[in-house]
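We were asked to recover a plausible sequence for a given structure. The inputs and outputs are reproduced exactly as logged, with field labels preserved.

PROBLEM: sequence recovery
POSITIONS: 386
GIVEN STRUCTURE:
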């Protein structure tokens, strides 16, 4: 059936395609806009709203990561639909700063278009696979309810609006767990690489935050803060990509195909990578505030964003290890708890001191873990333990 193959051709290679990278670039703007939303309303309520929007944006991204692990996004009509979804996603990103205000309806409608395109392509891919088609019914129900709830939320405000957003996220995120994962298919290497790249995108957003905030006089303090900010972003990169990303990808590839592999992918990547991304976005918010005035103290909200965001990132790693290896990373868990305890202290010292103080334990932990893993780390990174 040549026409059907053109409509939705199965993925043949594990490498991420250029169109996927092009699609993902919009998420850099989406992450930046979430940070901007929180920066414009630096209150606990503003942080909460920013995280709600981020959760919705994240779920649209992970939905397409599953999709393009099944079909080739660059073949036939799929390419055109992907480009159309990219345009809709751009409208979603542009609407984020006012997603709870004047652009709430625009946000909901554009998000609906993004999800409709995703489901339409998945239905094409599942024509000859009843199990996959059954699974798509589940996400179609979840996405439809979620979009309806977001649209309803655009007509109310305050607590009612926030409650509808939370319910929409719960329904959308819960659908894969409720309807099961037996029918899904994925290319494990591609899926892992795609999720690794989204961590890079989030870290890139933190670099953007530093650049935006540094549009002031380049005093010695600002230069020092920028360097320390890069140090934090680099540490977050190292913590994930040195060993964790490799181990997680390997476990996914070695998992039994079908329900075991799909459930592992859902839990490890779709669910547990979100706190990492959220943590990075919060850190970006804290670093941006720090660079605006390096000599001032951070207020409680921004201190919680900087230190608490780092803690959330580390706790995401802790949960990921529990899910994959069923062991606890005491070092990362301990540092996360310590950072949360130190949030009040961060409000009493200059922001520059807080940045330096955050760098120190992160890099100390990296040095300790590098020494601890020793030969095992070297063999893993060089493919010698296959």
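RECOVERED SEQUENCE:
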């Amino acid at each position: 059936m040549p026409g059907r193959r053109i409509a939705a051709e199965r993925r043949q290679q594990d490498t991420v395609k250029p169109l996927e990278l092009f699609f993902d670039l919009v998420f850099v703007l989406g992450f930046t806009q979430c940070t901007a939303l929180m920066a414009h309303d630096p209150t606990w309520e503003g942080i909460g709203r920013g995280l709600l929007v981020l959760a919705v944006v994240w779920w649209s991204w992970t939905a397409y990561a599953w999709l393009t692990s099944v079909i080739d996004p660059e073949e036939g009509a799929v390419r055109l639909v992907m480009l159309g979804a990219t345009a809709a996603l751009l409208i979603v990103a542009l609407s984020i700063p006012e997603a709870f205000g004047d652009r709430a309806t625009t946000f909901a409608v554009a998000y609906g278009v993004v999800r409709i395109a995703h489901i339409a392509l998945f239905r094409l891919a599942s024509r000859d696979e009843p199990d996959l088609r059954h699974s798509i019914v589940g996400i179609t129900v979840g996405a439809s309810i979620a979009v309806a709830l977001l649209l309803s939320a655009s007509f109310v405000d305050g607590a009612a609006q926030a409650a509808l957003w939370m319910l929409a996220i719960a329904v959308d995120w819960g659908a894969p767990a409720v309807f099961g994962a037996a029918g899904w298919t994925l290319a494990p290497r591609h899926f892992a690489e795609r999720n690794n790249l989204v961590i890079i995108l989030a870290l890139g957003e933190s670099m953007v935050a530093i650049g935006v905030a540094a549009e002031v006089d380049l005093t010695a303090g600002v230069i020092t803060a920028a360097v320390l900010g890069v140090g934090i972003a680099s540490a977050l990169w190292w913590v994930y990509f040195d060993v964790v990303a490799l181990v997680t990808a390997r476990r996914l590839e070695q998992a039994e195909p079908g329900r075991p592999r799909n459930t592992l992918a859902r839990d490890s990547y779709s669910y547990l990578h979100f706190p990492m991304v959220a943590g990075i976005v919060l850190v970006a918010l804290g670093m941006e505030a720090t660079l605006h005035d390096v000599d001032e103290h951070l207020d409680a909200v921004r201190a919680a964003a900087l230190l608490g965001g780092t803690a959330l990132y580390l706790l995401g790693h802790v949960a990921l290890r529990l899910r994959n290896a069923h062991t606890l990373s005491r070092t990362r868990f301990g540092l996360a708890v310590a950072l949360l305890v130190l949030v009040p202290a961060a409000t009493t010292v200059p922001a520059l001191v807080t940045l330096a103080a955050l760098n120190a334990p992160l890099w100390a932990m990296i040095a300790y873990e590098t020494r601890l893993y020793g030969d095992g780390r070297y063999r893993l990174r060089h493919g010698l333990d296959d």
